[in-house]
Fold this sequence. Notes:
Blueprint: H1 2-42, H2 47-61, H3 64-77, H4 82-95, H5 98-107, H6 113-127, H7 132-157, H8 165-175, H9 179-196, H10 199-211, H11 217-238, H12 244-266, H13 268-283, H14 294-313, H15 317-327, H16 352-381, H17 384-416, H18 422-457, H19 464-489, H20 497-524, H21 529-557
Amino acid sequence: MNVIINILVTIGSLGIFLYGMKLMSESLQKLAGNKMRNILSRMTSKPFNGILTGTFVTTVIQSSSATTVMVVSFVNAGLLSLAGAIAVIMGANIGTTATAWIISLLGLKFSMAELAIPIVALAIPFIFSKHSKRKTIGEFIIGFSLLFLGIEFMKDSIPDINNYPDVLEFIAQYSNMGYWSVLLFVLIGTILTLIVQSSSATMAITLLMCSQGWISFEVGAAMVLGENIGTTITANLAAAVANRTAKRAALSHMVFNVIGVIWMLIVFYPFLKLVAYITVMAEGVSPYMSAAAIPVALSTFHSLFNITNTLVMVWFIPQIIKIVTYLIKPDSEETENFRLRYIPSTFVSTSELDIETAKQEIEVFGDRLVKMFGFLKDLDKSKGEEYDKVLARIAKYEDITDNMEIEIARYLTHISESEISTQGSERISSMLRIIDNLESIGDSIYQLSLMKQNQQDNKVVLDNQLTAKLSTMYDMVEKSLNIMNSNLHGEYSKIDIDTAENMEHEINHYRDTLRNEHLEAIKSGYYNYEIGTAYSGIYALYEKTADFVINVSEAINKD
């Protein structure tokens, strides 16, 4: 019974640790999310800049997965090349080693539990503040306290190995097989990371086991290597049903880490001796001689491995790109089928950062509508079988726009259910208005295609003069769409609303001119009722489409 209780206490302690990490990470993202995005997009022009950026961002927000989310969104948006993304991911590997140092230097060397509760007391005024930024600071402080409480509880829940000679004998049996033991515990570290779904948590478990004498320095180092592989497998599983750019970014992370683990296994024992020498210089005791020295030695190993691996592999970024591009080939039909490019199939809990992902998906929405509108001109030029194909493509795109609105709205609603900043909440409201109007543009384009089809079926022929006027209206709406799309792709705080509004006024004025001319033509009998109905219906729907277009720019402007 005591064994079961100890296991449950250990799992519960791990849960407190993980929740503390999550709370810290999400709080930091809310406080610094926009700044982190700006840093990532502007400081990755060179590989070493990308590495430094990835290291800094991951160290600050304490989440390599959050860094990866931002990286993938920037690659998809064209703000960051795949080479730049790989460099940032390499830096993220270095940044994530900060967790090990926090645990080994603070969590294990000092009893932080006594300070954790008073620290929570300091957070109370912040938590109950109506100011969102102060509240977020309070959440960070509580997350920080829970992290160390979790570590303290885990330390207390792990029993002395000497009291369990059977377990000690079992571990010793599999720890004394030489190089095979190293490979076995690399595998164990990989599997454990997959189960726990957090390399930080697995690292905490490894450090605690080493500090309590359950496993040796060599075995701990092997588990650390496995954790480096395990965290990349998790990312690849998440990207399995995502777009190809996300797959390539995730796969490049795996290629980078697997190659690193392979060469590290070749020099494993000499490298451990180097780490032991550094530990003796710093701590005065060897990790081979004292279990108390192993946590610092493992943190040194973790950092030194990732730094060395990055410095070696940074020169092979072009080769990594060739490998992942060869393995994940482009899908030529991607734009012709409904498939979200940026929003993952499983929601990622990064709150503020998810808004950037939604923005990228909305940009794709805008691109598709511009392309869909262009099909109307193709429709006027086509005949017979080609005409039917264009008509079918417009119908297919209309279905895509319906699905995109539903999925993006669902994603934004999911984000809004978590605690986000006031600015983030306002931005989500603007995005919901944007996608509603984008879907309406798709409906209008589809209705225009049906009008043109009806015109052809009824053999209604417009003369050159009327056709030219409709062509002018088409060009004006197309220009309005391009202005809208440019605003969608830019920074919402710097959109060109004046140009969009001027274009809307021009379209309205031209519509009024056509309507007045149409009424006069009907009175004078210039053309019959069927022609007049077809003609007026098309220019009116063009103008209605432009109304939805300006609504999008206005919604962006309110963000």
